[in-house]
Amino acid sequence: MKMKNVLILKIFRHRWPVLAVLGTTAIIFLWPAVPLHGLDNWIRMYLNSGYLTYLYPIVALLSGINVGIYTYHKTVQPCCPVGSVKTGATGSFLGVFFGACPACIPAIAIFLPLSANVFLSRVAPIFSLVSIALLIFAIDRMNGFRKVL
Question: How far apart are CA 61 and CA 148, in angstroms?
């Protein structure tokens, strides 16, 4: 099997799926700057967190690839089964939700007791790993790892 015919790589040959991947990845990766009130605060938090340095870019990229595959199925080759797209959209939403955005824990600190915030900050890497697993599952359900013509 030629690797270039695998859907996850083939989407990068078309303009709209590539724009969807790049745009979604950039938005997800940079959006914590909004609740943290600035890009400098986000970069400082990002660089001072061990798990964020590795897991958050993976979540952002997989989310972008998921949206890119969806865009590919809608614009380039509209022939995927409806069930796969629904599963992919759900997986993408849940993946981003479980990604434990690094700005979310400080933002919800106002609403939750300190013990809940400490717990959430301790299990945030687990949420990120669950997010990665859900996104890989969604990409697989959308035939991202299969050969296409």
Answer: 21
Angle of helix 82-98 relative to helix 114-141, nearest 10 degrees, comes to 160
pLDDT digits (tens, 9 = 90+) for 46-102: 888 777 788 889 989 999 999 999 899 888 887 645 455 555 556 555 555 554 565
- The answer to whether 62 touches 95, Cβ cutoff 8 Å, is yes
Q: Count CA within 13 A, CB hemisphere, residue 108.
A: 15
Half-sphere exposure of residue 4, counting CA atoms within 13 Å on the CB side? 1
Q: Are the C-beta atoms of 61 and 48 separated by less than 8 Å?
A: no
* b/e per residue 42-64 (b: at least 16 CB within 10 A): beebbeebeebeebbebbbbbbb
